[in-house]
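Is calcium ion placement plausible here? Inputs below.
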Amino acid sequence: MTILQRARSGLLDAVRAGDAWWWFLLGGTPLLIAGAWLGPAAQEAAYAVLAALAGAGVLTGLAVHRPARTTGWWLVAAAMTCGSASSAAWSLAFLDGSPPGGLTVVDAVYFAMYLLVAAALAAVASRGASALAGMVEAGVVACTAIVLGWVFLIDPFVNDNGGWTSGSTAVAYPLLDLFILTMAVRLAVAAGGLTRTHVLMLLAVATMVASDIVYFVSVSSGGAWSGPGVSVSGWMLFYLLLGAAALHPSMAARTADRSGQEVRSSRRVTALYTALVAIGPLATAYACRRDLRAGDFDLADVALPLAATAATAVLLVIRLSHTSALVNRRAAELEQSLAEQAVLQERMSHLALHDALTGLPNRLHVERSLDEALRRPDPGTLLMIDLDGFQQVNDSFGHPTGDALLQAVAGRLTEAVGAEGVLARLGGDEFAVLLPGVGHAEAAAAVQELLAALRRPVAVLGHRLHVTASIGVRNLASASGSAEVLSDADMALNAAKRAGRDRAEAYDVRLRESQLRRIATVERLRGAIGTGDIVVHYQPIVSLTTGRFTAVEALVRWCPPGAAPIMPDDFIPAAEDSGLIVPLGEQVLRDACRDAAGWHARYGIGVTVNVSPRQLAEPHFAAKVRAALSDSGLPAAALILEITEGMLIGAGPHARQSIAHLADLRHDGVRVAVDDFGTGYSSLAYLRDLPIDILKIDRSFMPAGDDAGEQVALVRTIVGLAHDLRLATVAEGVETLEQAAVLQTLGCDKGQGWHYGRPAPADRTTALFAGEELQPVTASRESLAHRRS
Ligand code: C2E
Ligand code: CA
Ligand code: CA
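Reply from A.M.:
I modeled the complex. Tokens:
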């Protein structure tokens, strides 16, 4: 690196560091002080050097600080070039001994510097949208400056002295200063907060104007051509300050955009305007008085100030009308945006109270409507509607179909509810209908209408779906708040679901009581699991061809100490709901495998265990079954799992997981039976594809009473179909010898029921098998039935 390069990079670093402007000022100060005593040639040479340095400062500032807007600075650079060039020319002329006289090209170049500085200030202060306002303000300042310039400079020193005779150009400077001053004032007023650079520029302008005035006064009073030392130092300071302004880091700072603040009413601006408006007449009055006293008053003395004052008034009117136009525009804009805001507000409140999918009112809306209805003497009825098996539609056909179904259902409900009721979607597949002023009887009719409307098949996205709904009914007469009503209706809805779906259930205090009982039951059951209070009973299953016991069904009993045994129908639903069925079912499975292992070893008896959907959906179900088998020593082939049809239907994650577990276990030799067959979906077509081995024909099909003939036909069909699909059949609920005989002729494989034996504890079941060993089974059947009943 050469010394020059090193110096350059050192210089740039100093500028970047941000204190170069200060060194620039400090470095120029000695010259500034010495300037006053220099001879004319040296003075001009000093100006030339300072102007060139200031120009270099501008270029350096531009290179280092990289301002976004550069026009103003290029104008400053151009001004400095003009200043430097003309001063250099004068310096040479002085050295030649031929001081300039009259107006020369060099003078013109020097005047150009003033105009360029004025233009630079205008560019720096440019305000975009409010440029016009800025120019008008500048015009007001200019007019006032003209008045002052005339009254205090031109009139006394030039006009009243009988014209300009010295041949000096001194008079031109104050006039040119008018432009600079005007733009400077505009910058001071316009820029959104003055930066350090702005302040330095304004100081430069102030120094320049002051020096020019001093010079003008001095020359017009017959002073030296080059002017007094004070003005010499002032001009030098002008260059130094401009250079420093360019070197200051804030030269790149963006002036705050004030385009949004054209309508200003700050006290500062008001005071400035007032002063500007007052100066014209005051100064003119002063000039009149002065010239009248001196006795040389003529109209020309005040013509210019009066014209300038009039111009100020005109400019102010323009400025005011501009402002008022702006205010009007703002007012119109404000009005428009208020209107838009009102529309938006309405849309938002609609969104907040409506459901996006169906466009129906949402839960919040219903809550409000409910609160309103409850304040009336005749509040009406709330229905809460939930689709049955909606999850399966979602799982099997996908969410788009589910959404389309919800929209179709919303349409149907809207039709059925009519204009009097408020239909809302509470979320998911849950809807609510508020029927204001509707009493018990009317509500019951409306409910039946809704159930019927939903039963009709719905065509969505190419599927024909059969949906039904469960409805909870809450009469509002005795209710106090919307939250209570919604929770009561929900309770009634759950009761309708439990009661078998596709029906309605009305809220009743007993529902709440039974819910409390359920909660208490769940808590007690939680404590019973894993203790001896959970007992497994076994009911024999008999081969209809040989008449021998082939298996037992494990049926759980809850025997709290000191109380009557509780039957599964009274606690299995609560166990399912609460998830307790998972540990409970595991206990039954392990006990059943343990008990059956001995029976299987001695009598070849198998065991069938009921499995709930919750258990089968567990990720580790198959592993738990395998563990129960290996811990008990029972072979897989001796275990049958009983499931219900619904568990394997659909394509949802639960059905898939369940099918995977069963396929896995069947691989080991475990068999699967479909329990209560004929009561659920009963679509025989799907049976072929499922991992099952046995159909247990529900006991409601047992031939009895008047429609025995019909029942027999149904059982014959089921048995035939099952055999076609290579599935074994077990008839449940065989209570009489006649039924057993009919089943035998229909070709049913096995039977289970009171006719063969009631569920009994393990020890009695052991005794039963031991007894059968001694006596032929066929003979023991009747005696057993008698013993158990
Ligand atoms: P299920 O699986 O259909 O069991 C047969 C039910 O019918 C048993 O009632 C049984 O006592 C009864 N039953 C047997 N023979 C006859 C008959 O000839 N006539 C009549 N009317 N009924 C007969 P239980 O033991 O009260 O069980 C009720 C239900 O509880 C069972 O129905 C089963 O779904 C469920 N359950 C029982 N134990 C368990 C268990 O360990 N786990 C699970 N998940 N569910 C179980
Ligand atoms: Ca069963
Ligand atoms: Ca059954």
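Short version: Residues 299-353 form the longest helix (55 residues).
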